[in-house]
Amino acid sequence: GEVTMINKDDKTVDLAGGEKIQYDKLVIATGSIPLKPKWLKGGDRKNVFVIPKEKVYLDEMKTNLEKARNVVVIGAGFIGVEFSDELTKRGYKVTLVEKLPDILMLAFDRELSKKIEELLRTRGINIITGNGIKEISGSEKVESVILENGDTIEADAVILTVGYKPNVELARKADIYVDESGFIAVDEYMRTHVRDIFAVGDCAQKRDFVTRARVSTMLASTACAEARIAGMNLFNLNVVKTFSGTIAIYSTAIGNTGFGTAGITEARAKVEGIDAITGTFEGVDRHPGNLPDAHKQLVKLIAARQSGVIIGGEVIGGLSAGELTNVLGLIIQNRMTVNSLLTSQIGTHPCLTASPAGYPLVKAAEQIAFKMRNR
């Protein structure tokens, strides 16, 4: 049933059908809602879509798109990039528009995002960067998109992938504290300020694992990690089982090329005032490289200059890039240094991994170690 009200004083929730349910502990996991900017003129025209986590809406959108030919996707984050590629594979003419100078700019440093952009272009996607949307024009339906510089793009449909906002209306109505960014405030046990009420997932407040700054990371993997923490502390606090901060860990694949990122980028480190040092190495994910399914594998590591603690990593490679991205997340969460990574023992196999003598993750760490010795 649908919960319409949380009554924190008598520890009950009201359902839409009129029933009441008593609770001992309550976990709020109401997720997020896709953004449709109020300032966007023409955003209410037919064939302007967002990407909610709602099957009925997405099925209707799929049906409406069957008559479209030219589709403009606004926002080149992971969802915009993935959706553009899927549409292109189905025969649509797709233009991907990003206001920032590069696609995926908040997740990757420029030299890697440019490689991903080049890959998308080879797959037939028209990419416009450094130019945002101003207006969606047409009569009832979408006919074109007007950009900030005045350029016009013919369009039968527009997909808005410009972000999500936390769904916190239930919390607000119950007077559960929501922070200035619109997230339900929680501590490291995922507790709200109201006794016996927890919050997890997209609706819950996040702090970056490295910088400790508030962040708006919204990932299913993060939500699952938070849910495990809440579950382990629901009835008895386990003081060692706390959520120490959000590590943004993303990965996806375009064709047989996978790419992922964990932690913070070199650019973000500079903005945060972190004195960082980097190492990049490109090899292959099989050995020898002429084996079937072998793919180039590029790894970039970002570390704090003084301590050598690894704070970020980026990878472009074959489909194994997703699991390598998870390894980067574990490295960051365990605050491993470059030296500890260099002395780590790894297992390799010609059909499964890069060569032990040219393992890109280790070789990138070697580059940082060399720079630290010769600074």
The order of strands across the largest sheet is 6-13-7-8-9
The assembly state of the depicted protein chains is single chain
Helix coverage percent of residues?
10-25%
Sheet with the most strands, sense and barrel status = 5 strands, parallel
> Strand share of the residues?
25-35%
Assign the CATH architecture of the largest domain.
Answer: 3-Layer(bba) Sandwich
- What integer value in Å does the Rg equal? 23 Å
What general outline do the C-alpha atoms trace?
A: globular
Output the keywords.
single chain; 375 residues; FAD/NAD(P)-binding domain; Enolase-like, domain 1; 5-stranded parallel β-sheet; 5-stranded antiparallel β-sheet; 22 strands
Compile the SSE list and pairings.
Blueprint: E1 3-7, E2 12-15, E3 20-22, E4 26-28, E5 32-34, E6 48-49, H1 55-65, E7 70-74, H2 78-89, E8 93-98, H3 110-122, E9 126-129, E10 133-137, E11 144-147, E12 152-154, E13 157-160, E14 164-166, H4 169-173, E15 197-199, E16 206-207, E17 214-215, H5 220-232, E18 249-254, E19 257-263, H6 266-271, E20 276-284, E21 296-304, E22 310-317, H7 321-333, H8 338-342, H9 360-373
Parallel strand pairs: 4-15, 6-13, 7-8, 7-13, 8-9
Antiparallel strand pairs: 1-2, 2-3, 5-14, 10-11, 11-12, 16-17, 18-19, 19-22, 20-21, 21-22
Structure notes:
A hairpin with a 2-residue loop joins β18 (249-254) and β19. The chain has helices at residues 55-65, 78-89, 110-122, 169-173, 220-232, 266-271, 321-333, 338-342, 360-373; strands at residues 3-7, 12-15, 20-22, 26-28, 32-34, 48-49, 70-74, 93-98, 126-129, 133-137, 144-147, 152-154, 157-160, 164-166, 197-199, 206-207, 214-215, 249-254, 257-263, 276-284, 296-304, 310-317. Helix content is 25%, strand content 27%. It is an alpha/beta fold. The mean pLDDT is 96. The protein folds into 3 domains: 3-32 and 166-232, FAD/NAD(P)-binding domain; 36-162, FAD/NAD(P)-binding domain; 251-373, FAD/NAD-linked reductase, C-terminal dimerisation domain (Enolase-like, domain 1, 2-Layer Sandwich). The chain is globular, with a radius of gyration of 23 Å. The protein has 9 helices and 22 strands.
